[in-house]
Design brief:
By secondary structure, the chain is an alpha/beta fold. Helix content is 30%, strand content 28%. The protein has one domain: Transcription Regulator spoIIAA (2-Layer Sandwich), CATH 3.30.750.24. The chain starts with a strand and ends in a 14-residue tail after the last helix.
Length: 139
């Protein structure tokens, strides 16, 4: 059963929560589903949730980005720090189903060559997930 961690801050576009984090468990992988905006105001909270997810020592941490409506470079840097933490913990970070705004950011910055990115959640959770840059994030 997943755990929902609402973030108390609000988005730049009204009173909706800026970021929601849920963590359903699966065999060998931990899936973290993000929804809302990932910007400079959410980075610390995001990193805390994702680094905390490593405390259960998953083989891989899959971050589902399909419901992320906005991500700036601060958010991308947070994901990069978590990627490095995963490697230090002998784990792997996989970005799954990036939304169009996230996909565009990954392409523009070239970070799709750094992160392992999967357009399909089921593929991301499998042990056969490709290495960084192999799946790409082409539209």
């Amino acid at each position: 059963m997943g755990t929902r961690h609402p973030v108390p801050t609000h988005s730049r576009h009204g009173n909706a929560p800026a970021l929601r984090v849920t963590t359903p468990g699966t065999d060998g992988a931990l899936i973290v589903r993000l929804a809302g905006e990932i910007d400079v105001t959410q980075c610390r909270t995001l990193e805390l949730h994702l680094v905390k997810a490593f405390s259960s020592r998953p083989e891989q941490l899959v971050v589902d980005l399909s419901h992320v409506t906005f991500c700036d470079t601060a958010g991308l840097n947070s994901l990069l720090r978590v990627h490095r933490a995963a490697r230090a913990a002998d784990s792997r970070l996989v970005l799954a189903r990036p939304s169009q705004p996230v996909r565009s950011l990954l392409e523009i910055t070239g970070m799709c060559q750094v992160f392992t990115v999967s357009p399909v959640l089921r593929t991301a959770v499998s042990t056969e997930t490709a290495a960084p840059g192999e799946l790409g994030v082409s539209p």
